[in-house]
Amino acid sequence: MKYKAIVIGVSAGGLEALKKILPELPKDFPVPIIVVQHRHPFSDDSLERAMDDICLINIHQINDKTSLEAGAAYFAPPNYHVMIEEDMTCSLTLDPPVNYSRPSIDVLFESASDIFGAHLVGIVLTGANKDGSLGLSIIKNRGGLVIVQDPETASVDAMPLAAIAATQVNYILKLEVIAEMLIHLFIEKQSGDFL
Fold this sequence. Notes:
Rossmann fold
């Protein structure tokens, strides 16, 4: 399989966007998904619980040294940056915010790109700042596949617009078809109409 992991960055409007993607994926989805959703530093795990109730894949909040496995989505905890390590585990840091955000999408995307290189899919969804645009351009420059939510379907279009301006995006997709695209990529052996 060409791609070995997916990273998703999302901010304002994120829960509703993720509800259109993650519940559509089958339980045996063959790669891990790592998500940075901007949220309040003192948030609880209600986001993960809400997603776990409606998803077939397993939903986890990342702890230090969480191992990444297929068939699961891993959410950055509030107030920590997430980095991916060579042994396919996650590490958490309290480094300063990036783009006013901790967790930062850029930090996750660049770290994941260091590990997966051309075998990474990066996705930027709805959001109100430019976090993720630099990280997405790094993924693209290293040969990964980059997808951005069509700004017209975003609750807040600033983050998708910044990502589109930052790099040559492979696909700009309406929110409703992103899950279908991922199933084509990972389940149907890259034989779908999108490619």
